[in-house]
Amino acid sequence: xxxxxxxxxxxxxxxxxxxxxxxxxxxxxxxxxxxxxxxxxxxxxxxxxxxxxxxxxxxxxxxxxxxxxxxxxxxxxxxxxxxxxxxxxxxxxxxxxxxxxxxxxxxxxxxxxxxxxxxxxxxxxxxxxxxxxxxxxxxxxxxxxxxxxxxxxxxxxxxxxxxxxxxxxxxxxxxxxxxxxxxxxxxxxxxxxxxxxxxxxxxxxxxxxxxxxxxxxxxxxxxxxxxxxxxxxxxxxxxxxxxxxxxxxxxxxxxxxxxxxxxxxxxxxxxxxxxxxxxxxxxxxxxxxxxxxxx
Length: 295
Prior knowledge:
Largest sheet: 6 strands, mixed
Low-confidence stretches: none
CATH architecture of the largest domain: Alpha-Beta Complex
CATH superfamily of the largest domain: Spore Coat Polysaccharide Biosynthesis Protein SpsA, Chain A
Helix content: 25-40%
Number of helices: 8
Mean pLDDT: 88
Distance between the termini: 46 Å
Shape: globular
Radius of gyration: 19 Å
CATH topology of the largest domain: Spore Coat Polysaccharide Biosynthesis Protein SpsA, Chain A
Strand order of the largest sheet: 3-2-1-4-7-6
């Protein structure tokens, strides 16, 4: 939802900005509504729905990264017990999507490739949010699991972890992002108790008009009714990952025992002198392989 009427100033009203914003938002939602009702490009959603009933569903939103998906599946198998892991493929590259499908199939993990998204590149947050909403409407709501959650494809558990455990304390859990005067859970690590949201019109849209990132569209139906200070949040700490490179230049994030590669957003704006993302993945992959080999 856009900002409330009283959040606009005189200059905004003189330019009719509140009216224009609501018109654009309504037009966008019509398109969004149509896209979330398109069928999957690959995968048997009905089988996934049957398997997900009364379970705890962990959904990875994947995008053009088969090697990361492979590592994550292995890590989740080792360290996150008693859940149904789904790879929800949002890839824009058909060949990479085929590789991700192969990885999921060989590792015995459920796979679904979501409908193509018209947004890409610097608007990847819109694509990601659409994918999450598609899974919610086409899998989660039909399956009615005990709980469900979403993770990015580049976040890996490194020790025994149960991200659903603290949902007994509060209806949602995950990494809280404050966007005054609002807040929402980070789309890459968010978990929900199904009975608490079953009747809500969840929408994981990236709500630009309200200054909210991916998942922020749930402010109106969900988050505004909750207290962010009560949300079980693992917190975040940063670690420099490349020798001789500062944490400001290149880092990983830790959310409890979960290692998040984190993006180098500079790469979105053109070629960089140094490919930190590729170098970082090499180090992260080596570290995770050693950790998994010890278990």
